[in-house]
Amino acid sequence: MSETPEDTSAPGKTPSMGWGAIGEDQQKLILDHYRTPRNNRSLDNPDIQATEVNPFCGDETTIQARIGDGALEEVGIHGVGCSICQASLSMLSEAIHHLTPADAKTLSATFQRMMQGEVLSADETAQLGDLASLVSVRRYPIRVKCALLAWVALDQSLKDY
Fold first, then answer.
1. pTM of the prediction?
2. In the predicted model, what is the mean pLDDT of residues 52-72?
3. What is the per-residue pLDDT for 23?
4. Which of these CATH numbers, 3.90.1010.10, 3.60.15.10, 3.30.2270.10, 3.40.50.720, describes 19-158?
5. What angle do CA 64, 98, 91 make, to 5 degrees?
6. How far apart are alpha carbons 114 and 110 in whole angstroms?
7. What are 141-146's contacts with CB under 8 Å, separation 24+?
8. CA 135 from chain center: how many Å?
């Protein structure tokens, strides 16, 4: 039986009151990453770097990384904006750490497909890990751009690498 994107939720998560369609566990994870962003630092001499801004709301994300032995061995981020944007950036920074640039591009494409409403396979959802908790943001179309901004920056930073 095929699920519609509206029926898709993160594995093991059920919607609760929280933020409307965003389940309580998802809400807690998003707020944790927003309040305590991972890898929130600037890197000296990064191999890749990009900044993306949404001029309509003021969200801004910067991602940097050093690449060694073919993998993203150190990641630094900086962001300003809403909780969804900042949580996505923080989760991205954890998810890409130690990936090859090619694997980071694949992860980005998978995340973006999910956020644009495509139903992912169980394996793809498992590969997203905590990032799958952002699936409920799709129920608020205006906020999808918030969740995607960091990923646009990642794609831009990897474009010429």
1. 0.85
2. 97
3. 74
4. 3.90.1010.10
5. 65
6. 6
7. 143/82, 143/84, 144/115, 144/116, 145/54, 146/54, 146/57, 146/59, 146/81, 146/82, 146/84, 146/85, 146/88
8. 10
